[in-house]
Input
Amino acid sequence: MRSSNNKNHQKYKNNRTLKFIIGLVLLIVVACSVWYGFSQHKTVTPLPKNVDTSTSPSDNNINNQRKASTSPAPTLNNGATTSPSNNISSISVTVTRASVVDNSLQVGTLVNGTTSGSCVLDVAQAGQTPITQTNQVTIQNNSYVCPVFSIPLSDFPNQSDWNVSVGVTNDGTTASSNWINNPVSLTPGT
Output
């Protein structure tokens, strides 16, 4: 009699262990499936509100002309120019803002076509020595940019109108862009 009780008890233990192992495997499979689903989810970050992403027929005409052109430095509708060293890849930079904030001229950009390179801000006025700053292309909010340039107003010899441009260079390819609302007035309240 004891022998049959031991056999039943052993079957019960083996059955319980088997159920535990199957449950654990199922739990691992479900956890991996959930993790995989979340890891494949892509987040799309919208562009800043002050960036105009609309296109017009003239934009398309300019792009078509640029594609057909053999000139080394085509001009884009926002004042940007590129001079690629080869036709395989081209980069572009767009000045997205240039304004006085907290007693500094701040300039923001977007960079396309490269994930690295050198950024040069040039702020110029006729008869004055240009003011320049240099930085490196970086990623910010899922976009490549030149970090926001900030020049204290005290660095300017006068606070009248100045022209803002930014250039990006990477592997022999250079792109530049002028602020679409050039010149920028540094006079507070204008």
Observations:
- Residues 51-59, 69-78, 80-88 have pLDDT under 50 and may be disordered.
- The two ends are 102 Å apart (CA to CA).
- The first strand starts at residue 81 and ends at 83.
